[in-house]
Amino acid sequence: MTLNGWQKLWVGCSVVWGFVCVGSSVLLVSENLGDASLAAYIAVASALVLAIWFLPLIAIYIFGWVIGWVAQGFRD
């Protein structure tokens, strides 16, 4: 199985965006571990950041499928 250009873009963006989200979450949590209520708040915020991680990835993936579908339609 080989990946086309859009799928490679999607995989690359997902890896980079994942490192950014996880890195920022780890930094936020490690800076504020002293206060329990603040740590709980940051844990919820980190979970939200990781959930938001999926939105641009799904958008790029769907955009790639649509562009591929349109390009294939023009070739046929």
State the main characteristics:
single chain, 76 residues, mainly alpha, 0% strand, elongated
**Mean pLDDT metric:** 77
C-alpha end-to-end distance: 23 Å
Q: What proportion of the residues form beta strands (DSSP E)?
A: under 5%
What is the number of beta strands?
A: 0
Shape: elongated
Helix content: over 70%
Largest sheet: none
Written as H for each helix and E for each strand, in order along the chain, the element string is HHH
Number of helices: 3
Transmembrane segments: 9-29, 41-71
Keywords: Membrane, Transmembrane, Transmembrane helix
Describe the structure.
The protein is an all-alpha fold and 76 residues long. It contains three helices and no strands. It has one domain (5-75). The longest helix is centred in the first third of the chain and has 27 residues, at 5-31. The mean pLDDT is 77. The chain crosses the membrane at residues 9-29, 41-71. Keywords: Membrane, Transmembrane, Transmembrane helix.
